[in-house]
Amino acid sequence: MVRIPWRSAILIDANPGAEVTVVQAYTRFMVVFFIFVGLGCLVKPLTDAPGGGLLLWPEAGRTFGIFLINWVHTVLHLGLAVYALLAFKSTSASRGFARAVFWICAALVLIGLLTPDGVWLVPSNWDADLGQPPRSATPSWYGFIPANPPDDALNALVGLSGFVFGFMPIGLRPWGYWRTARATA
User: Fold this and answer.
1) Rounded Cα–Cα distance for residues 98 and 92 (Å)
2) Residues sharing a CB contact under 8 Å with residue 70, sequence separation 6 or more, in sequence order
3) DSSP type of residue 178
4) Distance in angstroms (rounded) separating the CA atoms of residues 41 and 24
5) Could you list the pLDDT tens digit for every one of the 185 residues in the chain?
6) Contacts from 121-130 at CB under 8 Å and sequence distance 24+?
7) Does residue 80 contact residue 144 with C-beta atoms inside 8 Å?
8) For the chain, how big is the Rg over CA atoms in Å?
9) Residue 148 near residue 112 (C-beta atoms within 8 A)
């Protein structure tokens, strides 16, 4: 068994004789992608969220003034990053991750197309239903799955990538297959 420092585990395999497949490389990329997207939703200077401070929690806003975000969005992306981190070690787990990305993104695109304003997981007036005064004077996006056309477009692209690498044979090819020399007749 080869011992590899944790920092380089994303870039190289712990088993030097094994080939990394395209879907494993995709999963490794998605670890970084979902961490950046999840943490990008938390950093207030990247958003138009109200209030002061550096971190966005639990207020909602838009990243880069375009993509609707809230704590559900952040938790979902960071959870997918953890899932990808656990899945990139084997081809079958990486395919499962890519397929999960496809189905999650397909559901989010469907939600976005059917309900252009997003979906509430809990009623927006849940404070009043519980007989408590509202927690803030401004409306909160607590329990809200944000969806708008830019979110739908990005979710569709990410879902398409999950479909290509999770369901199609290209995901099973070894990483770097395009660099091998062609056999001559």
Assistant:
1) 10
2) 58, 60, 141, 142, 144, 146
3) G
4) 26
5) 444 444 444 444 444 455 899 999 999 999 999 999 888 877 777 777 666 666 655 566 778 878 877 777 888 899 999 999 999 999 999 999 999 999 999 998 988 888 766 666 555 554 555 555 555 444 444 456 777 788 889 999 999 999 999 999 988 888 877 776 666 76
6) 121/72, 121/145
7) no
8) 20
9) yes
The tokens 């998605």 sit on which residue?
Answer: 30
Instruction: Enter the tokens of residue 23.
Output: 């879907």
The two tokens of residue 144 are 């809200």
| Residue 32, token pair as written in the block | 């970084």
Amino acid at 125: N
CA distance readout (Å), 22 to 30, 84, 100, 165: 12, 14, 17, 7
